[in-house]
Every structure is written in C-alpha cells, then in structure tokens.
Design a protein that fits this description.
The structure is a single chain. The chain is of the alpha+beta class. The chain folds into 2 domains: about 5-60, lambda repressor-like DNA-binding domains (434 Repressor (Amino-terminal Domain)); about 80-205, Ribbon (Umud Fragment, subunit A). The protein has helices at about 5-15, 20-25, 30-35, 45-55, 180, and strands at about 80-90, 90-95, 100-105, 115-120, 135-140, 150, 160-170, 170-175, 190, 195-205. Strands 1, 2, 3, 4, 5, 6, 7, 8, 9 and 10 form a 10-stranded mixed β-sheet that branches. β7 and β8 form a beta hairpin. α2 packs across α3 (about 30-35).
Length: about 210
Amino acid sequence: MVEHARIVARRVELGISQAELARRVGISQPAIVEIEKGRVQSTRYVNEIARALDLQPYEIDPKFGRSAPGLPITVDSPTEVPLFNLLIREGQAELSAMPFSHIARPTALHQVWGAYAVMLGDETMSPEFEPGDTLHVNPHLPTLPGYSYLFREAEDSLGAMVRRLVSMDDSNWVVRAWRKMVDGEKDARIKRTGWPMAHRIVGKTSRG
C-alpha cells in the first residue's frame, strides 16, 4: 500500500508543489492529488515518485523493501534487476504491472538504481530486438535521437512500446519501428504529453 502521508510530508519538506512533483514523475497533477489523498492503494510509478522525492521505493510502498512472493531477491537488489513482460493485448502493447521474475544484473546496469529488464513479446523492432529478447533498461539516461527507448504512457497506464527515437521537439517524439518500415509505414509522431517517459535500452539478452 502506498504511504501517501510520507509522500506529502517529503514533498512539503522539499518545498515543491503537486504540479512540480507531477511534472517530475510524468503524470498529471490530479493523479498526484489522488495518490496523496490515499485514494490510490498502489501505483506503478513508485520508482519515479521515489526518485523525484529523493527516497527509496520502500519508503513509499513497503512491498518494494521486501521480497516479492516466490522471489528471494528484492527489487533493489545489487545483484539482480526485476523482469517485466511487454505483451500485446487487443492490439496494444502493455507492460506487466509487477515483475514476474528477476535476472542477474547486467554490466550496463551496474549500480543503476531503478534499472529493470523487459521481455519483449512482439516483432515490431525486429531485427534489432526479437520476440523473447530481454531488454536492459536504464531509466536515468538523457533522451537523445539515435537510441532505442521503452516509451511509457502517463496516468498510471500500462501502455508501453519499444521504438527508435528519430527526432524530438518540445511537443512530440518522432519514433521508428523497424518492422513497420519494412511494411511501408513511415515514422510516427507521438505526443510527449501522452508518452512522457522514455527509458533507454542499453543492451539485451537474446532469447535461447
């Protein structure tokens, strides 16, 4: 359960507004209001809120400080990172709300707090990434064209997609999916307000 009082106290201590916290996390101010009022029992943005408030995730949600059911290693383990699923449901890619396993921490994610891994479930980024590949994600690196990212929706949505960032401006990302390029589709322009988080993919473990 989210410790909403801890979030409020820390935000006030740091002297930042709800609007500023929402901007740092990548969600709307009304979503922050709901969290702070205790109307939200859990949120997938625990890591983002913790980073914005300079806290550890378990200080916001106690389950992040304990082993998940059936898993011997905590989310913040120095030797492992949580592994999420990225699956297609009803034509839309969704990231699992909770990790289903852990993997040994890749070298590229050594000492990267909040790092995670994602098992890819579709061919959109083939041949760069194939179905079944495990992608290594660093959520702290700057967003720069020429790299592939896991883009994530706001508003506590599970929506996510892996794309190559082609260019960007203040309002939009211009992204590319390799398989769609083969099929003749052009680069897509997506709103940054709808997809505020771009976490860089720094490596992969190929399936098999």
